[in-house]
Each structure stands twice: as C-alpha cells, then as structure tokens.
Design a protein that fits this description.
Elements: E1 2-8, H1 10-16, E2 26-32, H2 40-49, E3 52-55, H3 58-63, H4 65-70, E4 75-77, H5 82-96, E5 103-107, H6 110-119, E6 128-131, H7 147-159, E7 165-168, H8 171-179, E8 184-186, H9 191-212, E9 215-222, H10 228-248, E10 252-253, E11 261-266, H11 267-275, H12 282-289, E12 293-300, H13 303-318, E13 326-330, E14 335-338, E15 345-348, H14 354-362, H15 367-379, E16 385-386, H16 387-394, H17 398-410, E17 414-420, E18 429-434, H18 436-439
Parallel strand pairs: 1-2, 1-3, 3-4, 5-6, 5-7, 7-8, 12-13
Antiparallel strand pairs: 9-11, 9-12, 10-11, 13-14, 14-15, 16-18, 17-18
Organism: Bacillus salipaludis
Protein name: Transcriptional regulator
Length: about 450
C-alpha cells in the first residue's frame, strides 16, 4: 500500500486526520512535532517509511528542505491563502465582537491580509501585523527563527492595551500565548484546504509511482575495448560483472549487443540504487577491467523512448574527458543530469514553444526533429561540427544530414566556419556552426 507521511503539530494532525478516510487506498502515517525547526529526525524516519511527505505549512517545509533532499523525498505543504485569513477574522468578529484594529496578527506574508481588506473595500486601517515572507524562499540559506519574537509581539501589544486579541499562524506561538492567558486563536483551518492538501499529496504520490514504473535503460561503453581476437573473452568478463550489478537493480543485461552494453530496469529501482549509492559500485568496474567507462542512463514511458534517451546521455559522456568513468542521465522531460558523483548539474534540453514551432514550419521539419538538432548543438557544446557528426547523432545517413544542413544554410541559421581533411584521400568536408540569428533560440 502507498504510504504518505503527514508532518505537523498535534493541533494540525487533529484537524486533518478526520479526512484520511476519503483516500482508503492510502496509508497515512502521522509525524508530530513541538517545534517546526526541530524536525530533522522525523524526516529521517519518514524517509524510511513513506513514499511522500505532506507538511502542515511553509515553516516546517522551509526548515526541512535539507533533510528532504538528503532523503530524496517528494514533499509538499498545505498552502496558506486569503481564505484562511478571511475565515479567521470573521470567526474573531462573530464570536468575540472585537474590531480589526484591536487584533494583532502574524502570518507568512502581509500581502494575504491586504488582499482580503482590498476585496471588502477596507482602506487605511491601523493594523498590528508581523510577517515572515522569507519562508517562501526555500533555496536561500536557512535563517534563524525565534518564536519568542512573535510571542513578544503579541504579548507586548496586549499588555500595552493596544490590542485585545491575537491571531497567529504559528502553532508554537499559539501555545505560548495560551500559557500567558492572552486571548488568541490559531488561524482557522478550512476543511476544504485540508482536503485539497491531502488530495494534492495523493495526486503527486500517484505521479511518483507512475514515474517509478518508467523504463530505465543503461547504455555502457568501454573506452579501452580490446582488438577483435581478444574481444570474446573480454566480453564474457564484462557480462559477468554487469550481471552482478543487474541483480542489485532488479535488471536484465542484454546479451544481443556488444559495444555499447545495455541493461534494462525501471526508474524506481534506479533511483533506489542512486539513493543508497549502490550505483557507485559500477565505478569499481573501472579498476577490474582497467578501463574507464562512458555510461548513459535514459528514462522513458516506452522502451524506444528510454533507449533513445540512454543513447543521447551516452553521447554526452563521450564529449567529456575519457580518462575516468562518466555517467549522465536523460529523463522523460529531456532533463540531462550529470556527471553523477562529481560536480553534478542539470540541463534542460527540451524547448517547446511557439517560436520553435514557427521555426520548424519555416524549415519544413517537425518540432521534435528541430529540438533534437538543438540537443545536438548543446551536447556538442556549441562547437563547429561536420555533416557526419550530425548524421551520427541523428542516426541518419550523411546525405540526409547534408540536406538538413542545407535548409539551415538557406535560412542563414548556420554558417560555414571551416573544413576538415579526412584521413583518406577524400575531399575536405565543411564545418558548420550556428549563426547569430539562430543563437536567440537557445537563450
């Protein structure tokens, strides 16, 4: 059964758990905390037990980012919005009869409150508001978060008789205000928001399961492949090592191919291997066979798509230094990741928009083939190339590649930058590169 972890305060868990029954196919596991910035051990625990993690709010999600990434967890949080603010203010006004100017408020962004007031045409109110908008910038270095500042904010205003009531968006602050006997409530949690939070987590978990079932193809090329008379013994040795690795990946090694060798598995098994660093064991193969390897891993919803992506990822490894093993991954969205276990980066090779479609129409080719050409230019690191290199990448004849190049030349999208002399006695071959006119499509 699919498991989703729900991480929040006791108040939040009590509010959301009555709706778990709406998703009978999901097992929900609760992880409760007293303070949202002391949750690292809970995330570590969840990483071993659940497929997805739902946070109660942006604060816990913000402080949990490092551990989320370490555990390679998919996660989201129940969003804060204007509906929460308006319901909370209405509740105070209806039950306590306290005017807005006598309420102290803390919330993620003051903009939420301003939007509510603007909608009901309340202008220039005297408000006591403290916000923490940095919580939405998860990519930034984590700042300290002292709840005592928020407790003092509400308490000082109340003691000075500037306010009569406190509205807080932080569970820990609410609990402290209650201890101080300061009239207060925690922001009202709309049932619809709680249900939508669960539904979003379930939808993203199902999407993750779909991705886990994708086909994964590993294409492996040996740099120092032996000459023909020694090839058979070497191939048997390689297959033995690859079969040992395949057992860890729940995978199958193709016996139909020589160089490059191919392993078939699924994305879920691959990502578990990456998470547990089992795939690093393939680096040990370099020492056993005394040769670096180029490894391309491709994900796809079909066998053909995964094989093509593995081939493209392998092509990129060959453009790197060949004195050591290099591994790249190309996923179903044409996102290239690598080199693995080094200074890993991500490149988006997919570029679908109206400008690309328009250019494809001008060149009388499909957008898919145009994007493949763009992939080639990027993978070739924008260096000059020959028709044969383009043909090798597109797996077409050189004549077909020359016809394609001619279309680009006619539209002044390529320029001739020089020529190369082949090793035989043939004619020199032209070298091409993209023109300034085409460069704008890569920005």
């Amino acid at each position: 059964m699919v498991a989703i972890g729900v991480l929040g305060s006791n108040l939040y868990i009590d509010a959301i758990s009555p709706y778990y029954h709406l998703f009978p196919e999901i097992s929900f596991i609760n992880y409760t905390y007293d303070s949202p910035w002391e949750i690292n051990h809970l995330i570590d625990q969840a990483g071993k037990e659940v497929d997805f993690l739902l946070f109660s709010g942006a604060i816990a999600y913000y402080f949990g980012q490092k551990k989320i990434n370490e555990n390679q967890l998919m996660a989201t949080y129940v969003p804060f919005n204007e509906f929460v603010v308006s319901l909370s203010l209405f509740s105070i006004y209806f039950h306590e009869k306290i005017p807005l100017e006598k309420i102290s408020i803390d919330l993620p962004k003051q903009e939420f409150l301003e939007n509510v007031l603007k909608e009901i045409h309340i202008t220039d109110p005297t408000l006591f508001v403290k916000d923490y908008p940095w919580v939405y910038h998860v990519e930034e270095e984590k700042a300290g978060f002292d709840i005592t500042q928020f407790v003092h904010f509400h308490a000082d205003l109340y003691k000075e008789k500037k306010t009569q009531f406190a509205l807080t968006s932080i569970h820990a602050v609410y609990e402290e205000l209650q201890k101080l006997s300061i009239p207060s409530i925690y922001m009202v949690q709309p049932k619809q928001s709680l249900k939508e939070g669960l539904e979003r987590a379930v939808t993203l978990t199902r999407l993750k399961k779909t991705k886990d079932s994708q086909i994964a193809v590993i294409s492996i090329k040996i740099a120092n492949y032996p000459i023909q008379q020694e090839e058979q013994v070497f191939r048997l040795q390689i297959l033995q090592h690859l079969n040992q690795m395949a057992r860890q990946l729940n995978a199958r090694v193709s016996l139909d191919q020589h160089q490059p060798f191919t392993i078939y598995t699924n994305r879920g098994s691959m990502e578990v291997a990456l998470k547990e660093q089992n795939l690093q064991k393939i680096l040990e193969l370099e020492g056993k066979i005394n040769s670096p390897l180029q490894i391309g891993i491709g994900y796809g919803y079909t066998m053909n798509e995964a094989e093509n992506h593995a081939t493209e990822a392998l092509y990129f490894t060959e453009k790197q230094a060949t004195e050591k093993t290099t591994i790249f991954i190309l996923d179903e969205d044409k996102k290239l990741i690598g080199p693995l276990f080094e200074n890993e980066k991500q490149y988006v090779l997919k570029n679908e928009n109206q400008h690309i479609q328009s250019l494809a129409d001008q060149l009388k080719m499909t957008a898919k083939n145009l994007i493949r050409f763009f992939d080639f230019v990027r993978l070739h690191q924008f260096r000059s190339f020959s028709a044969q290199e383009l043909a090798d990448y597109l797996t077409v004849s050189r004549r077909s590649a020359e016809r394609l190049i001619k279309r680009f030349l006619e539209k002044e999208l390529l320029t001739i930058t020089g020529e190369e002399q082949p090793y035989d006695q043939g004619r020199p071959r032209a070298l091409y590169n993209i023109s300034e006119k085409l460069k704008k499509y890569f920005s």
